[in-house]
């Protein structure tokens, strides 16, 4: 896997494009409570967002079309199934607008990686096109039709998710997370979400208890998708153990359905030392040194 490149809006903005960030999503904790009749799972999760991720740019055009560049462009089709185009079509259907757009996605996040790249791209498309086309719509309602974590990605701020993840509950003390140094590491295994949920053992290990300190709540919590993901890819367990042993790490865990793992730090220097050590100890891993939004 290639390493992350910094994506800046400047090159697109200079050419007259509107730009919208699509940051990485992290599940600081994720409790699976039950399997529902439709096959989906009832979860309780703390969503948080990084300051970096993909970048979406748009300008008016007669047609609706997507081009993809960036380090992970090769792994992704730009056809009608792409979540960016699905979001655009959903917004057109909801509003009746027939406007087009030329869209350019700079894909900096690995795909099927537990950090919601596709969901965040879809949310960015809704925000960006509603702005560019000047249409009013219930973006939350549209987001729900695109994926369980697209509503959280629409707001881009730490929040609690319940239900399938799409019922959002304000997170007391969320602002205390802002600016925390964050390191994301993906060992290079694609992890499709459905099979990981299907590997959950069906045992409810209890609720995610939130007070007014989200970091403390996350540390006391779990990611119930980690055991099934680790069964599919044992490298994840080694990576979490490695991250937890970094000096200054206050929380190390897998995000979402994996395989990306994260570590949170109190200090930037400790994060940067861990990022340097990744290059030494995990030379083939993708990494992103960033902070919480
Ligand atoms: C696990 C999480 C945690 O944030 O993230 P990722 O690992 O995908 O980033 C999300 O719940 C993923 O949300 P999202 O990626 O939008 O899921 P969807 O497209 O709606 O569903 C993909 C598949 O995951 C399973 N799924 C998803 C959500 C849920 N609450 N229960 C499920 O069982 C279903 O098998 C579904 O077919
Ligand atoms: N713009 C997009 N970015 C990433 N994946 C996308 C996109 N559009 C559609 N997909 C599909 O959605 C699936 C999940 O992608 P992604 O959001 O990266 O996973 P995760 O939520 O686990 O990080 C992938 O299998 C991919 O083929």
Automatic annotation (TrEMBL):
Domain GHMP kinase C-terminal: 219-283
Keywords: ATP-binding, Isoprene biosynthesis, Kinase, Nucleotide-binding, Transferase
Key word Kinase present: yes
Active-site annotation: 25, 149
Main enzyme class: transferase
GO biological process: isopentenyl diphosphate biosynthetic process, methylerythritol 4-phosphate pathway; terpenoid biosynthetic process
GO molecular-function terms, A-Z: 4-(cytidine 5'-diphospho)-2-C-methyl-D-erythritol kinase activity; ATP binding
Pfam family, one: GHMP_kinases_C
Record field: catalytic activity: 4-CDP-2-C-methyl-D-erythritol + ATP = 4-CDP-2-C-methyl-D-erythritol 2-phosphate + ADP + H(+)
Pathway: Isoprenoid biosynthesis; isopentenyl diphosphate biosynthesis via DXP pathway; isopentenyl diphosphate from 1-deoxy-D-xylulose 5-phosphate: step 3/6
InterPro entries registered for this protein in UniProt: GHMP_kinase_C_dom (IPR013750), GHMP_kinase_C_sf (IPR036554), GHMP_kinase_N_dom (IPR006204), IspE (IPR004424), Ribosomal_Su5_D2-typ_SF (IPR020568), Ribsml_uS5_D2-typ_fold_subgr (IPR014721)
Entry EC no(s): 2.7.1.148
Matching HAMAP family: IspE
Family: Belongs to the GHMP kinase family. IspE subfamily.
NCBIfam families per record: PRK14608.1
Protein name: 4-diphosphocytidyl-2-C-methyl-D-erythritol kinase
Species assigned in the record: Sphingomonas changnyeongensis
